[in-house]
Amino acid sequence: MKLTDDSNYAEQILNGEPVTLTFNYIDEKSLTTINAIFLKILSRTGNVFLLETLITIIREIIFNAFKANLKRLYFSQNGIDINDKEQYQNVMENFKEDFLYNLEDVKPLITKSSFFIKVTFKSDNNTIDFSVYNNVSLIDEEFSRIKNRIEQSKKYETLTDAYEEVYDPTEGAGLGLILMIFLLKNSGIGANNLKIKPDKTGVNVSISVPELVREKKIVTEVTNRVLENVESLPTFPENILELQSLCNNEESTLDQISEKIQHDPSITADVLKLSNSAGFVPGKKITTIKEALKIIGIKNLSLILTAAAAKKILSERYKKFELIWDHCTRVAYYARVIAKKKKLVNMLDSAFIAGMLHDIGKIILLSTDEKIINTISEITKDKQMRSSSILEEISIGISHAELGGMIATKWNFPDTLNAAISNHHSPMNSAQEYRDITNTVYLANMLSGIETRKYSYYYIEGDVLEWIKLETFNEIENFHKDLKNEFNTHLSQLG
Ligand SMILES: [Fe+2]
Ligand SMILES: [Fe+2]
Fold first, then answer.
1. 227 alpha carbon to ligand 2 midpoint, in Å?
2. Maximum CA pair distance of the chain?
3. What are phi and psi of 41, to 5 degrees?
4. What's the gap in Å between 32 CA and the centre of ligand 1?
5. Looking at residue 173, what is its pLDDT?
């Protein structure tokens, strides 16, 4: 089974020929082609920053259309008229149990049915139009509920306000529409470019992306607090800065540096701990600074010091969020192995450090407003989104990745590290010269995310899978299995 897409649809669309894809059944696999089309078109039109927005929106529209089709099939199978208001609620309860939560069994039924979904893409002069049509007509009640939700959503200033007032877990669909309206507003596409047109045979939902889209930055009271928190972070301690300049001085010797480190027991402990968690020598524990320096080299020591200092400042100030570091340790290890697989021999240690620090922005976000972040992670899971970044942007005004980049700038991290942190959820936004390290950390983070969340390999950007040459389901699954085992062995060796 292939995970990447090699169709020429994007080419056709960009040449002015509309492309229509028809589906009876929708799952993550069917959506990979659509993701790839968006990525290719947006890269060509210079709008890659819209990728997550458009993917999130089209997923939402397609899943709603699919749900509407399933609903009609269910009612007709049970011989019940969907317009029968008395029976509607009861039947809907069973519908969820029997159909919605049981899609594998429903697949043959819906595939054989006459219900379908058509997704059409068109592009001319740098505008992109796409639409989703499904062949069941809306009942009046459904259409007025949708119109209401749209109007309501336009009223809210922030996504979290809307979420608190409108979210109703039994209904589900409500949140999706609100989300779409916020995404359209914030991305600069505009909520008025969403059109819902029901007719006698079906419903057409379309979105036109205008030629010049300018992202609208949301600035809320939370944004300001977040920025204040970054502002208030201390600079690196003097002894770390001195050590770093010693590392950067070509005349420094190993003896000089190790002596200076040993003067400070806490730096000594940090350097040893980080060197060991990097697994420089498999199966061997590094116990002295001299040994560590011989193995990791002076240049990498500077990087290790950066990571140790950043980690220390953040974990002392924000003790509560320690779990993030467990995730980061895993991502760091994975990043190193991925870099090795890609034969990026000069980048193994930077990949490790970038993995270790990739989520520093998340700590600041969590410490500023834990409630919003929890809401965001709830919606991210609920909507099975690839990352929380886009929601952070529309509700806080800044994503944890972007924030991580700001911290990296404040602490003078090397540019490669900064790029990898800033784009670890959107490798396609990274400048070409930093693509390797960004892809590495992105992939490491996705694999780690797949272990704890319910999403699958289909969520990984096709271009990154091509880059690492893991293009089938089996290939990536086996690679991931080995990686996990290797990491667990490494953890147990560290004791
Ligand atoms: Fe992240
Ligand atoms: Fe992460």
1. 21
2. 85
3. -65, -45
4. 21
5. 53
